[in-house]
Amino acid sequence: MTTNYLVKEEKSTCDRTEIANHKGIMKFFSETNFDRLKSIMYAKQAMKSEYLFWEGDPADRLFYVIKGEIRITKMSETGKSFILNLHQAGDLFGQMDPFLHSVQSFSAEVTVDCEIGVIQRKDLEILLWQHGDLAIEFMRWMGLMHRMTETKFRDLMMYGKPGALCSLLIRLSNTFGIPKGEHTLINYKINNSEMADMIGSTRESVNRMLSDMKKEDAIEFINGQIVIKNATYLRDICHCENCPLEICRM
User: Which pLDDT score, from 0 to 100, does residue 32 have?
Assistant: First the structure.
């Protein structure tokens, strides 16, 4: 696929004032090593509905979300799009295989106007070679990303569509949840079609499963947003393995 970047690039280096929310990867990188990563980033602006990269593009960069939101998607052979990840401020993402000339397995769509810090592969390789402690932390981060992907595929394959939907609701709750008394409000607008794309189902099936959960008093809807009332009910259906929050998220 021919690369067609629609975003405007700014070659200025990202400074600390620009990166306001880095709690995502700061769970895995020390402040010193994050500063090292930041030193090789350059800033890129991206508008809603644009793509940072497409499936099949060269996998030669990593992307850090300074502000905004990114949706990672995968296209099936039948043309159906699957939503795999929802990245927000503080997240680092991208494919960095240990093989030269690899290509992107996914596409990255901008869902909210973004400011992105971009790390070139060649610059990262030099930095990892120079700093062994950074290389170890980077390996830990890569391992977490692989484990997160594995658990999502487990959800899709092992416990049917109800299990996959319950797991999705738990992940959304862990990522966007706000306490609401004894319950949790998912503070993220998402429609049933989008949820269907996240679990490889249809909108009608998601409608039916959400209706069943509401009848069981496990969830409710407030102003178009989902409130988790009985998380134990959801965990039982998806056979929750109590993964760390760093893994059980979008």
Answer: 95
**What is the residue type of 125?**
E
For the chain, domain boundaries: 8-155, 160-237
For 211, residues 6+ apart whose C-beta sits below 8 A from its C-beta are: none
Check: CB of residue 60 under 8 Å from CB of residue 119.
no
Report the CATH architecture of 160-237. Orthogonal Bundle (1.10)
pTM over 0.85: no
Using CA atoms, how far apart are residues 52 and 44, in angstroms rounded to an integer?
Answer: 10
Task: Kindly report the backbone phi and psi dihedral angles of residue 233, in degrees, each rounded to the nearest multiple of 5, phi listed first.
Answer: -60, -45
Nearest CA-CA partner of 7 in 67, 70, 50: 50
199 contacts 161 by C-beta, under 8 angstroms: yes
Query: Which is nearest to 42 in space by CA: 12, 16, 63, 66?
Result: 12
Of the CATH numbers 1.10.260.40, 2.60.120.10, 2.60.40.10, 1.10.472.10, which one belongs to the domain with range 8-155? 2.60.120.10
Note whether 42 and 14 are within 8 A (CB). yes
pLDDT digits (tens, 9 = 90+) for 139-190: 988 888 888 888 877 777 778 899 999 999 999 998 899 998 889 999 988 9
CA distance 83 to 197: 6
Edge-to-edge strand list for the sheet holding 177-180: 177-180, 183-186, 225-228, 219-222
Predicted local confidence at residue 11, as pLDDT: 45
The Cβ-side half-sphere exposure at 209, using a 13 Å CA radius, reads: 23
